[in-house]
Amino acid sequence: MEIVAILARWSQLVANLVLLGSCLYLAIAGTRRELFDNAWVIRLEKLFPVLTAIVLVGLIGVLATTTGKATGIESNTWKLDAWIEIVRHTNMGHMWALRAISALFLMAVSVFIYVKRERARWHYVMGACIASLPLVASAMVSHAGADENFMVYVPIYAIHILMAGAWFGALPAFLLIVFDRHNCDAKGIQLVLNVDSLKRFSVIALPIMVAIVLTGLILTDRMVEEDYHALVASTYGWALVTKIALLIAILFIAYQARSKWLPSFERVCDSIDRSSLDKEEKINQSFFSKWVHKTTQIENYGYVEGTSDSGVVRLRKWVRVEFVLALLLVLFATILSNSVPAKHAMVENWPYPFRFTIDGSIGAGAWNDPTVQFFLGLGVVLLVAAFGLFWLGKKKDWNFRKRALVTSVLVVSGIAAILPQFAVVAYPETYRNTPVPFDAISISNGSVHFSEFCTSCHGPQGKGNGILAKTLSMPPADLLTEPHTARHTAGDFFHWLGYGIENTGMPGFINSLSEEDRWDTVNYIHAMSRGYQARLLGPAVIPNKPSMGPPVFQFTAYDGTTGTLKDFRQTANVLLVFFSWPNSLDRLKELSESYEKLRSLKTVVLAVPLDGYSEAAVAGFAADTPLEVVRDGWFEVKNSYILYRRTLKYPDILGSGNIPDHMEFLVDRFGYLRARWIPSLDQSGWSDLNLLTSQLLQLNQEKEILPPPRDHVH
Fold this sequence. Notes:
Layout: H1 2-29, H2 39-71, H3 80-89, H4 91-115, H5 121-139, H6 143-146, H7 150-168, H8 171-180, H9 184-187, H10 189-224, H11 235-267, H12 275-284, H13 287-300, H14 308-337, E1 354-356, H15 370-395, H16 400-418, E2 423-425, H17 440-453, H18 455-458, H19 490-499, H20 515-533, E3 554-557, E4 562-564, E5 573-579, H21 585-593, H22 595-600, E6 603-609, H23 615-624, E7 628-632, H24 634-641, E8 663-667, E9 673-677, H25 689-701
Parallel strand pairs: 5-6, 6-7
Antiparallel strand pairs: 1-2, 3-4, 3-7, 5-8, 8-9
Helix pairs in contact: 1-2, 1-5, 1-7, 1-10, 1-14, 2-4, 2-8, 3-4, 4-5, 5-7, 7-10, 8-14, 10-11, 10-13, 11-14, 15-16, 17-20, 17-24, 19-20
């Protein structure tokens, strides 16, 4: 069924793109109405109704396969009533209906163009506009349409696919012209018009291809983000890599056609008298058309390589190849649209024993290795030599094939020397996505496992100073103060916890810890590392600098309300107050009295106990305060947030650490931890409510800079 869905999408997309590109070609090339009398134009127009029918049939196939997939019932693929339900009750169905209506209008325009005897440019302009509608509508159901910033990326995708249509859809016209040219003397003026149309298309093809590449890069960056590993380990990645390879080949053929073979094709009919056409051109052509003609004449002047006949043969051969490659490119683009984006791809088993990273190699000190320095220097020298020889060969007019071969060998050798220096050991689990979210419950559970299995070597705070550390052949990693944790993936730690690390003395705990236990421990290790980085926080918000996502959590308050930290995103800032009883009573009363003021500043106060306390006393206070005092879930929240207690002046890395009796954290409405006040450590802070108010005003004025922080470690 998946293959049928891909073929349906591919066929309707190809037909739609050809209709758009063909109409654009004829609209741009048809400055003289005599062009429309050519036999190739008539043959092309005969295809329009057929292509529109393919678009309609393909859309029906898309609806049918989508219905079966969306409902989970394969038999619904063939049921009309199930199709109707999808169209009526889903956003995807509404967009499909819009595409289908646009295709019906396109059918009417195609038939009109076909039966109309007197042709005009505005017919093709109208056809191109109508043909663009289904493509623009398809952008709303693409990956770009599902993005949280779809208002930005949908227009970019629409530009990308329209430019692709302008280029790809014009290739059939290009082919028809090339193969229509048999006898110059017999064709006369029509052939000159054909050549002019090819030159016009050749000039505009360059900016069109630049737009395709630029918009493609933007969309690719959004769909991949930081998960570049998925490019060689997922369906989306392989389809994208193949698409890029095809595009490079197509660009090379297009360059050769424009710079070499097309001028040869033009000179076949150089004997044709153009004087009357040139005179008409001066009268009728626009400034842009004159500029296009002048540009192509200048670029093609003086071309002498090979004979005209051989150039025509090559042009016919390679334009066919270009069209076939373009069909394959659209096919892989269709596969991309049906695949999970790389940033969401599940790489359960990394197939390679290595991965490339800067932080984990050069950033981890590999640069100090003389061998690494030698190969990096060698690689740079080889790359410089490659580009130098290519430039020199072009200047000296060396044979192109030899120049390309030598350059390619040097580039490949340079890359082969450089890349291994950025490689580190990888495991099947290296890029496995954590199934357990980075939340307070997981971190709290992980702290128990870490205390039981890891502290004897890594120490109670993960500093690498456990009681058994000195007995090991290699010192245990410092998981707290060193950037060791950030240099490795969550999957690396998961593998080490299960199978140990060879030649280091670290054992595996696969028989002692379940998979969930190991993921909990991974979350705890990352929370420790992030907590140490949080020592940069203070009572003052750094404007427009969100950087750290805090652990999320669930809670139940004494008044019976339940919720999560994520519930306040986009609506309110959260002031997390970790209190001890009764030491924090005065501060809690102060915040209670300022409740309405804080509420007007779009701020919610969650009060979380730090230790065991008198149930009756806190319950009585909670009944009289407007603050939300956490009753259930406080223990896990406390265990995760005490890891964020350290300051630059008091790093607290010795022994088991000291937990303050009162802490306050400020989380902005976008989900980022922005400030922290610890009364026993900070000389000044939010005891001055005016200072707290100024921080909240600052946060409320900020616009969203980053997307919400991830809920899983990677």
